[in-house]
Structure formats: C-alpha cells, structure tokens
Design a protein that fits this description.
The complex is a heterodimer.
Chain A lengths: L1 H7 L6 E5 L3 H11 L4 E6 L2 H11 L3 E5 L6 H12 L4 E6 L4 H10 L3 E4 L4 H12 L4 E2 L1 H10 L11 H4 L3 H11 L4 H8 L3 H17 L3 H9 L4
Parallel strand pairs in A: 1-2, 1-3, 3-4, 4-5, 5-6
Helix pairs in contact in A: 3-4, 5-11, 7-9, 9-11, 10-11
Chain B lengths: L4 H9 L3 H13 L3 H12 L13 H24 L4 H22 L2 H10 L4 H37 L5 H66 L4 H20 L9 H16 L2 E7 L6 H20 L4 E9 L2 E8 L9 H4 L1 H13 L3 E7 L3 E9 L2 H8 L2
Parallel strand pairs in B: 1-2
Antiparallel strand pairs in B: 2-3, 3-5, 4-5
Helix pairs in contact in B: 1-2, 2-3, 3-5, 4-5, 5-7, 6-8, 7-8, 8-9, 9-10, 10-11, 11-13
Classes of the chains: A alpha/beta, B alpha+beta.
Amino acid sequence: MTDEQTTTGGAEALRVFVVDDHAMFRAGVRAELAGRVDVIGEASTVAEAINRIGALEPDVVLLDVHMPDGGGRAVLEAIRRTHPQVRFLALSVSDAAEDVIGLIRAGARGYVTKTISSEELAAAIRRVADGDAVFSPRLAGFVLDAFASRSDTTVADPELDQLTNREREVLRLLARGYAYKEIAKELFISIKTVETHVSNVLRKLQMSNRYELSRWAADRRLV
Amino acid sequence: MVAGVASGIAHHLGVSVVRVRLMFVLLMGLSGLGVLLYAAFWAVLPQEPRTGGVPGKRDLSQLLPFILVGVGVLLTQGLLFGSVGVAATGGWLVALVAVGAGVIWHQSDPERRRQWSENLPQVPWLGAVVDESDRRAFLLRFIGGGVLVAVGAIGLVAVYAPSGSISEVINGVIFALVGLVGVAVVAGPALWRTFNQLRAEREGRIREQERAEVAAMVHDQVLHTLALIQRNAGDVKVVQRLARGQERSLRNWLYKPTASPTERFAAALEQAAAEVEDTYAINVETVVVGDRETDERVGALVAAAREALVNAARHAKVQTVSLYAEVEPDELSVFVRDRGAGFDPSTVEETRHGVRGSIIGRMTRHGGRAEIRSEPGAGTEVRLFLPIARESANTSKDR
C-alpha cells in the first residue's frame, strides 16, 4: 500500500482535514492516520470547517454526516462553490444509506462507516484523492436496491438511470465485502478498471433522477 | 338564574341571593334598568374559573334567555306606559350595546380557551383543528358582537340627536366605528398572545413526551449496558458483545422500521446475524438488497446462512464477517464471506460435518444449492442460491 501511495499520490503525504463534532473521534482518526497521511487540521462546527478548509485547501476532507447547523452537507455545499478541487469522503455511524445519499449527491466522492479499519480508511482517502470513488458495502447495497431493474420503473435516461451488468457485478462484490484488488481478481479485470466502474456508478448516483433516488432523498428532505 | 350574575354578586357581597335577585326584579320596572344592570354586570364581572363541563355550549344558552327577558321587559313596559317612548327605545339600544360588548368580552375569556385545549391533551392534532375552527367562530362572534355594538350606538345617536340630521348620524357611525376599532386594538394583542401561548404549550407537551420516551430508552438500555461494561471492563469479549448489542438496538430504534423476522426474509436474516454477533462476539456486516416474505424454503436458506456465519465465527478467527443477500425475481442468493483462516475444501467431507449436513444438505433438500470456496489463509466464502417462484417475489417486492 505504501508503494502505491508513492506512485499515485505523489511524493508528499496527502493533506487531510477532519470535520467532526466529536473531539474523541477526531483524536482517534488523527492517531490512526498518523504516518499514513498528514492530518493538517480539524474542525468541530460547520462554520469553523468552512473557514479553515477554505484557508488550508487540503487534498481530502473527512466529513461527518451528522452535525449541528446543517451537517456535513452544509460544509460540502459551501466549499464546493469556492474550492471545487477539494475532495470529500463522508464518514458516518449511520447505517441509513438515505442519510448518506444526500452527501453523495452534493458531491462527496465516497462514504465509509466509522467502524472502518485504519488501513482501509487510509486506502479510501488515497482513492478519493486520486479522483476515484469509495463505496462501503452498505452503500453498494443501497445503490443496487435503488437501481434495481423493476418492471414498473420508467427510465428517462438509460445512460444515467441504469447500471451496466459489469457495474452491477462490481457493486455486488463490494457489498459482499470484497476489496478492489479481490474484485479485480474475481472478474479478471485490472484494479484501474474496477475503479472506473465504481466512479461511473458514483456519477450515476449523483446525476440520475431515478424515482427511487429522488423519493428517498425527498423523504429525508435532503434534495 | 340566567347567567349566574345575581349569585355571583351575592357571593361577592356576602348577602343572600334572593335579595340581589329581588333588587334586579324591582329595578326592571324602572325602564328595564334591572336588565341593563344585569347585562352590564354579566359583561364586566370576571367569570369564575370552572373545572370540567362543556364550556363551548354555554354562549348561546346564556345569551338567548337574556335577550328574551330583555324583549319581554320592553313589551311589558310598552303595555304599561301605553307607548314605546323615546326613553324606552334608548334603554333598548343601550341593552343592544351591552349585549354586543358582552359577546365580545366573553370570547376573550382566556380561562375558557385554556379549558378547551386541556380537554384534548391526548389528541393534539384534534386540538389544533378545534383551535382553527374555534378561531373562525371567534372571529364571527367578534364581528357579530361588534355589529351589535355599532348598531346600538348608531341607534342611540339617531334617537337622541336633537335635530336628527344626517350628518349627526354619520358622526355617530364614525364614533361607533372608532369605538369598535378601539375594542379590537385593546383585545387583539391579548387574544393573539393567548393563541400563541396555547400553541407553545402544546408543542412543549409533545416535546416533553418525546423526551420522556428517549429518557426511558436511555435509562432502560444504554445506562444498563454502560454499567455492565464497567463491571466487565477486564473482559474484552464481553465488553465488545455488550457494546455491539447496544449499538444494534439503538440503530434499530433510530433508523429501522420494524419488520417481523417470522414474516420477512431480510428481517429474518438480520436477526440470525444479530444472534451470531451476540453469541460469538464478532461483527457481521449485513447488506440485504430487496426483500420478500418467508416460507419454509426461505427459512431453510436463512438457517443455512446462519450456519455459515457460525462456522466463520468459530473457525475463521476474524472480527468481521460479511453477509450479503439479494432478492432477485427468480432467485434468492446469500453470500457469507470472511478473510480468515480458510481451509482446504477437498477435506471438507471428513473434517466439517456441519458444513455438509447443515449447509449443503439443507440447501439441496429445498431445491437450492451451496458452493463453498476456501483457501487456507485466504478466507472462505459460502454461496447459497435458492430458486423461487417469480410471482410471489414480484408481489412482495414493493413493501
């Protein structure tokens, strides 16, 4: 993993910013990521996060979904207007993928749960920094559910509103707990191809107006 | 007697009710002065707070006999004195003013409004409905009372105007309107405040109920678990199991609609995973796509999946096992995967009797199949497939 970082992430360690209203969690992330990436700052409120991220311009922001004053979504929307190059990885204790879909649709490149291991978190940060997408098994399951080919759904834009068979296979393996490397081996494709598939799914998730997506979002008043 | 004014005064003055009533009756003879006084007292005296009863109905029953008595007195007076003179008409009109003022005054009684809302504490939405319709009725009555006051005032002016010229009447109208606006200005803010207070009270009560529910949950579960964790702080396995069980229960409480494990496939699978988590202190990452009803065959699939989870928990020596299930129109599939010790599948027949009997055998018996992929050191994946009838899957897919 470390040699992957030097080849894809450049010579310097990734600059990471942590936004979470729980000090204990921020400290934990800082300790876990020490040596893997460079945690350049942290914030506990939406306003503080917007100020400091704008000033520091980190590569990746680890963003808590649930916070007072609008949550991670408020930070995401404010920063993406002024600093579109900053990438976001959503972290949540929530298993409700509906909660996360709002953040993904607002522009986050991935979502992982807070119980993720340190190595996996570091790998996810690198992946997001490279412009790829990161799906937790649950998010993959949610996307499969939302994009299920039901007979009663009308598809407005086949390019955006449907998953290809390959994308479906990749998501299934993600939901089954496979790592990217294992997926590549299972499907006889390269890791880069797996990443491309997942990024395409992310794009569809962000752009599609599928009924299930908008319904979930509307139920939660997210969009 | 009519509105309890006499008894109220009697109570206040400490004299007998009969005397007060007698006085009113006597005064009635003097151009109906008794009626006017009665009306004035009724309008001005504070209403005694009541408990219970149906205060909403009392308005009309109070007003009607009062008006009838007023009319009766006027008729009697007309008969006695031969003609309805100017003075009598004046009394009539003053009575009208008093009635109007009384109507308005009684609407503004905050005690009554509070009673209404307290009568319906169990059904706040109904209270809101009542409140809305009540407000409309209130406006109507307010306007009605205002019109009475205005008509009375105009009449007074018209009757007593020395020349009876039009401009005097118009002046009277203007004064009456000014008076009416005055009443509205005085009463309006207080009424508005009362409305808001009542609404705030109701919202507060709802919040209080929610808080009580949360407090009960925290007390019954979370504090209990935390106490157990402190007592078992030395035993990592126990602490993990407690924390995981509590986490799951909180999650269910927060996010999930409750489905019965005996009825739905997803709920049954999640329950099996939860049991394995609790028993073996491992973490089962469960993802279920789609759902359907259970039957005997689906139950067998869940049991086989549970057995696979138990095997992973006991032999793989890992903390996390992935469980993925998908409901497709004609097939159910379940995948149980760990990244643990693994084993050589060619030796399965001899070493793992449970695998053959509880997983492979069970699946074949119910028309499904099971595949086991494992490599020493690279983990294990158990794949279970069960063909299902297309129709029932379709009908049960949309929850």
